[in-house]
Amino acid sequence: MSDGRAFQDGYPEDVAHCYGCGRLNEAGIQLKSYWDGDETVARYTPRPEHTAIPGYVYGGLVASLIDCHGTGSAAAAGSRVAGVDEASEPLLRYVTASLQVDYLAPTPMGVELEVRGVIEQVKGRKVVVEETVSAGDAVVARGRVVAVQMPQTMTPAEGPVETRLR
Ligand SMILES: CCCCC/C=C\C/C=C\C/C=C\C/C=C\CCCC(=O)SCCNC(=O)CCNC(=O)[C@H](O)C(C)(C)COP(=O)(O)OP(=O)(O)OC[C@H]1O[C@@H](n2cnc3c(N)ncnc32)[C@H](O)[C@@H]1OP(=O)(O)O
């Protein structure tokens, strides 16, 4: 967002429960993504429960970071191309159509990870984001997300949040 808030801070309440990026999901990762020039960036330090083997991060967590940084980047990039005022209007809603991950090196625990996104394509309802995950100077994973604007038929479940999270 151009006002210093993370992309995910602009998600309306009905789509703010995602395990990876929902600010209202207290058990989740609550990933925060931002513009950094033409690229996007998010930082996250894995928690002990994200362990694969002692000392190393579970690959599913790395995939989640790529997933949610990708959809957040897509929401920001697609909205920018559509002329949505990111500071005052909600971002367009995107979901993951495709998530590809290559694990290049073991990901150490106890280190802040940096996820970087490059917007490869914005075409119609689709945005393609190329990503890297780094631990210090080492690129530990590469990923690619194809995000597509949520179809109108994919509506959030009704009812109290506790019910929806169960
Ligand atoms: C009003 C205020 C809104 C404010 C919101 C603010 C921000 C919100 C941003 C995001 C918030 C939304 C949710 C946040 C929560 C979680 C996000 C985390 C990510 C997830 O956890 S989310 C869950 C997992 N996710 C799914 O549950 C999706 C299930 N799935 C489907 O719902 C459909 O499958 C769908 C919609 C994906 C596509 O269906 P569709 O019919 O709309 O697509 P269609 O055929 O029209 O394709 C259009 C173009 O996408 C290409 N394309 C399609 N599929 C592809 C694939 N697999 N690989 C490569 N390209 C693909 C086509 O090739 C074509 O490209 P082209 O135009 O170039 O030919």
TrEMBL record:
Annotated compartments: Cell projection, Ruffle membrane; Cytoplasm; Membrane
Keyword vocabulary terms for this entry: Apoptosis, Cell membrane, Cell projection, Cytoplasm, Fatty acid metabolism, Hydrolase, Lipid metabolism, Membrane, Transit peptide
A GO molecular function held by the record: hydrolase activity
Membrane disposition: Peripheral membrane protein
Enzyme class: hydrolase
Catalysis performed (reactions): octanoyl-CoA + H2O = octanoate + CoA + H(+); tetradecanoyl-CoA + H2O = tetradecanoate + CoA + H(+); (9Z)-octadecenoyl-CoA + H2O = (9Z)-octadecenoate + CoA + H(+); decanoyl-CoA + H2O = decanoate + CoA + H(+)
Domain Thioesterase residue range list: 55-137
SUPFAM superfamilies recorded: Thioesterase/thiol ester dehydrase-isomerase
GO CC annotation: cytoplasm; membrane
GO BP annotations, alphabetical order: fatty acid metabolic process
EC number: 3.1.2.2
Lipid metabolism in keyword set: yes
Family as reported in the entry's similarity comment: Belongs to the THEM4/THEM5 thioesterase family.
Protein name: Acyl-coenzyme A thioesterase THEM4
Source organism per UniProt: Arsenicicoccus cauae
Lineage: Bacteria, Bacillati, Actinomycetota, Actinomycetes, Micrococcales
